[in-house]
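From the pipeline queue, job 12 of 40. The input is one protein chain; the requested action is below.

Action: predict structure.
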Amino acid sequence: MSDEIELKLAVEPSFVDFLRQEITHFRLLAQDTQFLGNCYYDTVDHLLAAQKMGLRVRQQNGQYTLTLKTDGEVKGGLHIRPEYNVALPNAEPNLTLLVEKCGVNLENFAQLSLQPVFSTDFERQSWLVECGKGSVIEVAFDLGKIVAGEKQMPICEVEFELKSGCTIDLLRFVRSLTLESAVRLSAASKAKRGYALANAQAVEVSHWLDKWREFLQFEQNSRNPVDKLSALFQLEQALIEETFAIDVHYFSVDFLRTVERIGAFFNLYHYYTDNARLLETIFTQQLSQNTIGLDGDVLADLLESNNDLFTQIRDIIRLHSETKNNQLALEKLKQLLQTGQYVKRMINLISLTLDH
């Protein structure tokens, strides 16, 4: 078993040209282009998904690998998950072999009756790069589709996986890229998206005012600054993921829905600007402990970007109030959330909330 540590970005197909150029600034150790066919399996009642596990058989260069990913941690687009891998002689998911070779210790695991749920088929262009101090990162651009029966959805994302080094090295690497537009952190794995497609799950729109009140209650009761920031960060990332997952028609037909959605982001950015002291406290603590190699410019960048976001969200609110154009306001909001500046800000927040 090993921990998979990767940062995932949702991008546009043209992003691959940008990657090729950016990678020339680093020492290239290897590169490859392959087609990966993946079939995900579960029981009829989706027992594995209920336990936040993903089981797949991957076909790559005529070889088969069975992978079990267990429950881990997701902070924004940073995914940290234990995984087990075993080579297979064919495409059948042999659970007994997984138990014997990898020591998976789950009750009655090998006796589960499995069936295919969905597939993820994509071309992967990958580069293995060294980014200083011995840190090695695999950059993988995936372009393809998720298929569940007759339903499909596109895959277009970049995964930055840490092969050697520290997590902070991975964050520094992505932050160093000259990211611009049409890019955002993605907390949704291919497996999560695949299950949603297979189950025809409609996006449940959250009541963000209630969630905001819950956060404020948690903030009042918590004495740990990192816990407060972690809760705020997770709230923000969930809000972003939901905003992009909901059909635009849901907002465009209703003025108040649009007001509430933009208002949720206003609350976030207003809190960040009003509570700059929280970020300063965490930064000072971690800098003094010197346990994660925090960059000195993280705090200044965060304070500046939070102020910029607060200004820009007020401009969007003003635009929406004047034009009553729901679609235009949502487009402006999504543009704001898909900038390189926003991605780097989120990476800085992850840096502050990393476990020591």
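Job complete. The chain has 13 helices and ten strands.
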